[in-house]
Design brief:
Shape: elongated
Order of helices and strands: HEEEEHEEEEHHEEEEEEHE
Strand order of the largest sheet: 4-7-6-5-15
Helix content: 10-25%
Radius of gyration: 29 Å
Structural class: alpha+beta
Distance between the termini: 69 Å
Length: about 240
Amino acid sequence: MIKEAIDRILSLAPVPSTIQEIEGRKYIDTQKGGGLVPLKKPKPEPLTVHTLSGIIDYLAKEIDYLKEAQSDHFIQVVSPTEVVISAAFNGAGFFERPEFLTATFEPPQIRIGDYVSLENFIIGLQAYFVQDETTAQLLKLVGNVKDETVMQFSDDGRTQAVSARTGISMVEVAPVPNPITLRPFRTFPEIEQPESLFICRLRQQKDAPPACGLWEADNKLWKVKAITSIAEWLKERLPDVSIIA
Protein backbone atom coordinates (compact mmCIF):
# COMPACT_ATOMS: atom_id res chain seq x y z
CA MET A 1 0.00 0.00 0.00
CA ILE A 2 2.79 2.43 0.94
CA LYS A 3 4.73 1.60 -2.24
CA GLU A 4 1.65 2.23 -4.38
CA ALA A 5 1.14 5.60 -2.69
CA ILE A 6 4.76 6.59 -3.32
CA ASP A 7 4.52 5.53 -6.97
CA ARG A 8 1.32 7.55 -7.32
CA ILE A 9 3.00 10.68 -5.88
CA LEU A 10 5.99 10.27 -8.17
CA SER A 11 3.71 9.90 -11.20
CA LEU A 12 2.09 13.22 -10.38
CA ALA A 13 5.41 15.05 -10.04
CA PRO A 14 6.32 17.31 -12.97
CA VAL A 15 8.57 15.71 -15.55
CA PRO A 16 11.51 17.90 -16.50
CA SER A 17 11.46 19.00 -20.12
CA THR A 18 14.40 18.40 -22.39
CA ILE A 19 15.62 20.50 -25.31
CA GLN A 20 16.48 18.86 -28.60
CA GLU A 21 18.08 20.45 -31.63
CA ILE A 22 16.99 19.26 -35.09
CA GLU A 23 18.51 20.80 -38.23
CA GLY A 24 19.57 23.88 -36.29
CA ARG A 25 16.15 24.42 -34.74
CA LYS A 26 15.51 23.89 -31.03
CA TYR A 27 12.49 22.01 -29.69
CA ILE A 28 11.20 21.17 -26.21
CA ASP A 29 10.23 17.58 -25.50
CA THR A 30 7.67 17.83 -22.70
CA GLN A 31 7.60 14.01 -22.32
CA LYS A 32 3.83 14.18 -21.76
CA GLY A 33 2.70 12.79 -25.07
CA GLY A 34 2.52 16.20 -26.69
CA GLY A 35 5.48 15.66 -28.97
CA LEU A 36 8.12 18.25 -29.75
CA VAL A 37 7.21 21.90 -29.31
CA PRO A 38 9.23 24.57 -31.18
CA LEU A 39 11.35 26.70 -28.85
CA LYS A 40 10.80 30.23 -30.12
CA LYS A 41 12.15 33.51 -28.89
CA PRO A 42 9.66 35.58 -26.91
CA LYS A 43 8.18 38.54 -28.73
CA PRO A 44 5.76 41.29 -27.72
CA GLU A 45 2.25 41.54 -29.06
CA PRO A 46 1.87 44.15 -31.81
CA LEU A 47 0.35 47.51 -30.91
CA THR A 48 -3.12 48.21 -32.25
CA VAL A 49 -4.45 51.51 -33.58
CA HIS A 50 -7.64 52.32 -35.44
CA THR A 51 -6.59 55.03 -37.89
CA LEU A 52 -4.01 55.44 -40.63
CA SER A 53 -2.76 58.50 -38.78
CA GLY A 54 -1.76 56.19 -35.93
CA ILE A 55 0.74 54.53 -38.29
CA ILE A 56 2.30 57.90 -39.09
CA ASP A 57 2.53 58.80 -35.39
CA TYR A 58 4.06 55.44 -34.49
CA LEU A 59 6.87 55.72 -37.04
CA ALA A 60 7.45 59.44 -36.47
CA LYS A 61 7.89 59.04 -32.72
CA GLU A 62 10.11 55.94 -33.14
CA ILE A 63 8.35 54.16 -30.30
CA ASP A 64 10.14 50.84 -30.92
CA TYR A 65 13.30 52.36 -32.41
CA LEU A 66 12.99 50.51 -35.69
CA LYS A 67 15.61 52.71 -37.40
CA GLU A 68 18.18 52.25 -34.64
CA ALA A 69 17.62 48.49 -34.71
CA GLN A 70 18.14 48.56 -38.50
CA SER A 71 14.91 46.65 -38.88
CA ASP A 72 13.94 45.99 -42.47
CA HIS A 73 10.35 46.96 -41.77
CA PHE A 74 7.62 47.58 -44.33
CA ILE A 75 3.88 48.29 -44.40
CA GLN A 76 1.39 45.81 -45.83
CA VAL A 77 -2.14 46.85 -46.74
CA VAL A 78 -3.86 43.57 -45.92
CA SER A 79 -7.42 44.66 -46.66
CA PRO A 80 -9.61 47.79 -46.68
CA THR A 81 -9.85 47.43 -42.90
CA GLU A 82 -6.36 46.23 -41.88
CA VAL A 83 -2.82 47.59 -42.31
CA VAL A 84 0.25 45.98 -40.70
CA ILE A 85 3.81 47.15 -40.04
CA SER A 86 5.96 44.05 -40.39
CA ALA A 87 9.56 43.02 -41.11
CA ALA A 88 11.70 40.32 -42.68
CA PHE A 89 11.92 36.76 -41.35
CA ASN A 90 13.70 36.03 -38.09
CA GLY A 91 13.24 33.70 -35.14
CA ALA A 92 16.13 31.25 -34.96
CA GLY A 93 15.27 29.25 -38.04
CA PHE A 94 11.47 29.11 -37.66
CA PHE A 95 10.96 31.92 -40.20
CA GLU A 96 8.67 34.05 -38.07
CA ARG A 97 7.69 37.42 -39.42
CA PRO A 98 7.43 39.99 -36.62
CA GLU A 99 4.54 42.45 -36.56
CA PHE A 100 5.08 45.76 -34.78
CA LEU A 101 1.75 47.49 -35.25
CA THR A 102 -1.69 46.74 -36.69
CA ALA A 103 -4.17 49.39 -37.80
CA THR A 104 -7.76 48.18 -37.98
CA PHE A 105 -11.01 49.86 -38.97
CA GLU A 106 -14.35 48.56 -37.73
CA PRO A 107 -16.98 49.39 -40.37
CA PRO A 108 -20.62 49.82 -39.40
CA GLN A 109 -22.90 46.85 -39.87
CA ILE A 110 -24.65 47.82 -43.10
CA ARG A 111 -27.48 45.50 -44.07
CA ILE A 112 -26.85 44.68 -47.72
CA GLY A 113 -28.61 42.01 -49.75
CA ASP A 114 -31.91 41.98 -47.89
CA TYR A 115 -35.14 43.92 -47.63
CA VAL A 116 -35.64 46.20 -44.63
CA SER A 117 -38.43 48.50 -43.56
CA LEU A 118 -38.53 51.93 -45.16
CA GLU A 119 -37.73 53.56 -41.81
CA ASN A 120 -34.61 51.43 -41.28
CA PHE A 121 -33.59 51.97 -44.90
CA ILE A 122 -33.80 55.76 -44.54
CA ILE A 123 -31.86 55.70 -41.26
CA GLY A 124 -29.17 53.43 -42.67
CA LEU A 125 -28.80 55.44 -45.86
CA GLN A 126 -28.16 58.62 -43.86
CA ALA A 127 -25.97 57.06 -41.16
CA TYR A 128 -23.76 54.66 -43.12
CA PHE A 129 -23.28 56.31 -46.53
CA VAL A 130 -21.50 59.42 -47.79
CA GLN A 131 -24.24 61.95 -48.55
CA ASP A 132 -24.39 63.16 -52.15
CA GLU A 133 -26.92 63.78 -54.93
CA THR A 134 -27.64 60.06 -55.32
CA THR A 135 -28.46 59.53 -51.65
CA ALA A 136 -30.61 62.69 -51.71
CA GLN A 137 -32.54 61.37 -54.72
CA LEU A 138 -33.00 57.98 -53.09
CA LEU A 139 -34.12 59.51 -49.78
CA LYS A 140 -36.66 61.69 -51.59
CA LEU A 141 -38.08 58.67 -53.41
CA VAL A 142 -38.29 56.37 -50.40
CA GLY A 143 -39.58 59.16 -48.18
CA ASN A 144 -42.55 59.69 -50.51
CA VAL A 145 -43.58 56.04 -50.53
CA LYS A 146 -46.49 55.28 -48.20
CA ASP A 147 -48.20 52.10 -47.15
CA GLU A 148 -51.17 52.50 -49.40
CA THR A 149 -49.25 53.61 -52.48
CA VAL A 150 -46.74 50.84 -53.18
CA MET A 151 -49.39 48.90 -55.02
CA GLN A 152 -48.30 49.03 -58.65
CA PHE A 153 -44.89 48.47 -60.22
CA SER A 154 -43.49 48.91 -63.69
CA ASP A 155 -40.28 46.94 -63.86
CA ASP A 156 -38.09 46.24 -66.89
CA GLY A 157 -35.17 44.86 -64.89
CA ARG A 158 -33.20 48.12 -65.00
CA THR A 159 -35.65 50.83 -63.99
CA GLN A 160 -38.37 50.22 -61.46
CA ALA A 161 -41.26 52.74 -61.52
CA VAL A 162 -43.19 53.01 -58.27
CA SER A 163 -46.49 54.78 -57.75
CA ALA A 164 -45.84 57.13 -54.83
CA ARG A 165 -48.79 59.19 -53.62
CA THR A 166 -47.84 62.79 -52.85
CA GLY A 167 -51.33 64.03 -51.98
CA ILE A 168 -54.92 62.99 -51.68
CA SER A 169 -55.63 63.27 -55.37
CA MET A 170 -52.18 63.37 -56.95
CA VAL A 171 -50.06 60.35 -57.79
CA GLU A 172 -46.47 60.75 -58.98
CA VAL A 173 -44.63 57.95 -60.80
CA ALA A 174 -41.09 58.00 -59.36
CA PRO A 175 -38.38 56.05 -61.24
CA VAL A 176 -35.80 53.96 -59.36
CA PRO A 177 -32.75 53.91 -61.66
CA ASN A 178 -30.44 50.90 -61.51
CA PRO A 179 -27.65 50.44 -60.89
CA ILE A 180 -26.88 53.40 -58.62
CA THR A 181 -23.51 54.59 -57.30
CA LEU A 182 -23.16 54.89 -53.54
CA ARG A 183 -20.28 55.26 -51.10
CA PRO A 184 -20.78 53.34 -47.85
CA PHE A 185 -18.38 53.85 -44.93
CA ARG A 186 -16.26 50.69 -45.35
CA THR A 187 -12.65 51.74 -44.90
CA PHE A 188 -10.41 54.13 -42.94
CA PRO A 189 -11.81 57.68 -42.60
CA GLU A 190 -8.60 59.31 -43.85
CA ILE A 191 -9.21 58.23 -47.44
CA GLU A 192 -12.14 58.88 -49.72
CA GLN A 193 -14.71 56.12 -49.42
CA PRO A 194 -14.72 54.02 -52.62
CA GLU A 195 -17.75 54.04 -54.87
CA SER A 196 -19.77 50.90 -55.53
CA LEU A 197 -22.63 49.99 -57.83
CA PHE A 198 -25.82 48.88 -56.10
CA ILE A 199 -29.19 47.58 -57.21
CA CYS A 200 -32.04 49.17 -55.29
CA ARG A 201 -35.35 47.32 -55.06
CA LEU A 202 -38.73 48.22 -53.55
CA ARG A 203 -41.47 45.75 -52.80
CA GLN A 204 -44.67 45.25 -50.87
CA GLN A 205 -45.93 41.80 -50.00
CA LYS A 206 -49.50 41.02 -49.05
CA ASP A 207 -50.41 42.19 -45.54
CA ALA A 208 -46.90 43.63 -45.07
CA PRO A 209 -45.57 47.20 -45.09
CA PRO A 210 -43.37 48.42 -47.97
CA ALA A 211 -39.72 47.36 -47.86
CA CYS A 212 -36.55 48.44 -49.61
CA GLY A 213 -33.12 46.87 -50.10
CA LEU A 214 -29.70 47.28 -51.68
CA TRP A 215 -27.64 44.63 -53.46
CA GLU A 216 -23.97 45.00 -54.45
CA ALA A 217 -23.38 44.92 -58.20
CA ASP A 218 -19.64 45.50 -58.73
CA ASN A 219 -18.17 42.10 -57.76
CA LYS A 220 -16.34 43.60 -54.74
CA LEU A 221 -14.17 45.85 -56.91
CA TRP A 222 -14.47 48.51 -54.21
CA LYS A 223 -11.99 46.51 -52.11
CA VAL A 224 -9.29 46.90 -54.75
CA LYS A 225 -10.00 50.64 -54.95
CA ALA A 226 -9.82 50.99 -51.18
CA ILE A 227 -6.53 49.08 -50.87
CA THR A 228 -5.00 51.16 -53.66
CA SER A 229 -6.16 54.41 -52.04
CA ILE A 230 -4.71 53.39 -48.66
CA ALA A 231 -1.36 52.55 -50.25
CA GLU A 232 -1.25 55.87 -52.10
CA TRP A 233 -2.15 57.77 -48.93
CA LEU A 234 0.69 56.08 -47.03
CA LYS A 235 3.25 56.47 -49.83
CA GLU A 236 2.60 60.20 -49.96
CA ARG A 237 3.33 60.55 -46.23
CA LEU A 238 5.99 57.83 -45.85
CA PRO A 239 8.13 58.03 -49.00
CA ASP A 240 11.04 56.18 -47.35
CA VAL A 241 9.02 53.15 -46.25
CA SER A 242 8.15 50.21 -48.50
CA ILE A 243 4.41 49.85 -49.00
CA ILE A 244 2.95 46.53 -50.15
CA ALA A 245 -0.67 46.40 -51.33
